[in-house]
């Protein structure tokens, strides 16, 4: 009996091994991204709206990282989005229009604003955080409005020129390059988010979300983890804002408005929080519904979008996440059964 126990690995080592195990991609996920790539070839007339979907999906992903995984509520994510948008626009005007470096500048600006204001979020509960994030967005909005000599104020920042991507692919009027570029950025950021939330760091965020006091009692540095994920989410929001600047080549004060934060939250309401794909699914549904209703009733489209959102929340808020969970679970079971069949055949031979 003692020899048997001596061969068993320590509990801490076993837990560490499980937490470091890479998360496998399911067939549903692979098919989703393949269809996303195929949409560039088969939907050329929809590239403009697909570019908007990719941008708002990144923005919603930034909110999901703090809300769905860390439990940090925010009404001012537009502040980080707008900071990245203006930083990228000013960088293209006064330094260079190279898109990759402009994207990095936008992400850095969002991360800096997020880190500088993250310490204010640690001073209270959810209501305090809502008011602080809303106040930060209002302050940045007024700063951008008063510094019209730099940001353009109410007239918007004009004169933005973006160089061809990699020196060859120009940002055309039809959004062909913009959609491919935005989709590639969305995929890279999604993969990075997937690695973050499945790492020990991401698991500790879920513990903080569920019960901060218990997480602190078991030794998790709650404040440091919240600051870290809020900074990462700020970088994501800044990149989303930079993408908007580069694909539209124009910025207005709307990028810092409360409506922008509300759009991101509505996207998550539709798609669901806490599983990363919620922002993407919600962005597709929200933009398609908004575009369809706007074409049908240009004067009252906001009224009908509001009615549909209320109906969706009351009837099927959690259904996209439940459907995704069932599909991925089914795919996992099929893969497990197929592997067991292969092993049994090998043993028989």
Spatial extent as radius of gyration: 22 Å
Number of strands: 0
Biggest β-sheet: count, sense, barrel?
none
Residue stretches low in confidence (pLDDT < 50, at least 5 long) are: 1-6
- How would you classify the helix and strand content by structural class? mainly alpha
Order of helices and strands: HHHHHHHHHHHHHHHH
Distance from N terminus to C terminus (CA atoms, Å) equals: 34 Å
Shape type: globular
Number of helices: 16
SSE arrangement:
Blueprint: H1 2-7, H2 11-19, H3 27-42, H4 47-67, H5 77-94, H6 99-121, H7 126-146, H8 148-151, H9 176-197, H10 200-210, H11 212-217, H12 222-248, H13 258-271, H14 277-296, H15 301-316, H16 319-348
Q: What does it look like?
A:
Helix 4 (47-67) crosses helix 13. The protein has a domain at 26-257. It contains 16 helices and no strands. The protein has helices spanning 2-7, 11-19, 27-42, 47-67, 77-94, 99-121, 126-146, 148-151, 176-197, 200-210, 212-217, 222-248, 258-271, 277-296, 301-316, 319-348. The protein is globular, with a radius of gyration of 22 Å. It has 349 residues and is mostly helical.
Structure summary:
This protein is mainly α.
Please name the defining characteristics of this protein.
76% helix; mainly alpha
């Amino acid at each position: 009996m003692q020899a048997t126990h001596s061969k068993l690995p320590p509990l801490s080592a076993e837990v560490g091994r499980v937490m470091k195990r890479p998360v496998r991609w399911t067939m549903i996920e692979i098919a989703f991204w393949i269809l996303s790539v195929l949409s560039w070839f088969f939907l050329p007339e929809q590239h403009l709206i697909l570019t908007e979907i990719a941008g708002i999906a990144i923005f919603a992903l930034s909110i999901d990282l703090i809300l769905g995984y860390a439990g940090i509520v925010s009404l001012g994510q537009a502040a980080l989005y707008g900071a990245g948008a203006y930083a990228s626009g000013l960088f293209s005007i006064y330094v260079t229009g190279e898109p990759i470096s402009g994207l990095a500048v936008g992400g850095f600006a969002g991360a800096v604003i997020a880190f500088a204001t993250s310490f204010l979020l640690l001073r209270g509960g959810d209501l305090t955080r809502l008011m602080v994030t809303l106040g930060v967005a209002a302050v940045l909005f007024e700063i951008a409005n008063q510094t019209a000599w730099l940001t353009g104020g109410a007239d918007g920042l004009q004169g933005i020129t973006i160089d061809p991507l990699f020196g060859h692919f120009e940002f055309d009027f039809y959004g062909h390059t913009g959609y491919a570029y935005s989709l590639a950025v969305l995929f890279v950021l999604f993969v990075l988010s997937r690695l973050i939330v499945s790492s020990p760091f991401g698991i500790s965020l879920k513990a903080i979300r569920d019960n901060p006091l218990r997480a602190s009692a078991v030794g998790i540095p709650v404040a440091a983890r919240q600051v870290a994920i809020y900074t990462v989410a700020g970088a994501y929001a800044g990149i989303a804002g930079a993408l908007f600047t580069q694909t539209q080549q124009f910025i207005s004060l709307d990028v810092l408005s409360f409506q922008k934060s509300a759009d991101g939250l509505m996207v998550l309401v539709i798609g669901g929080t806490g599983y990363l794909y919620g922002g993407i699914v919600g962005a597709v549904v929200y933009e398609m519904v908004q575009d369809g209703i706007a074409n049908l009733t240009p004067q009252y489209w906001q009224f009908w979008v509001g009615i549909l959102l209320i109906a969706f929340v009351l009837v099927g808020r959690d259904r996209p996440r439940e459907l995704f969970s069932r599909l991925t679970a089914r795919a996992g079971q099929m893969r497990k059964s197929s592997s067991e069949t292969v092993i049994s055949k090998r043993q028989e031979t």
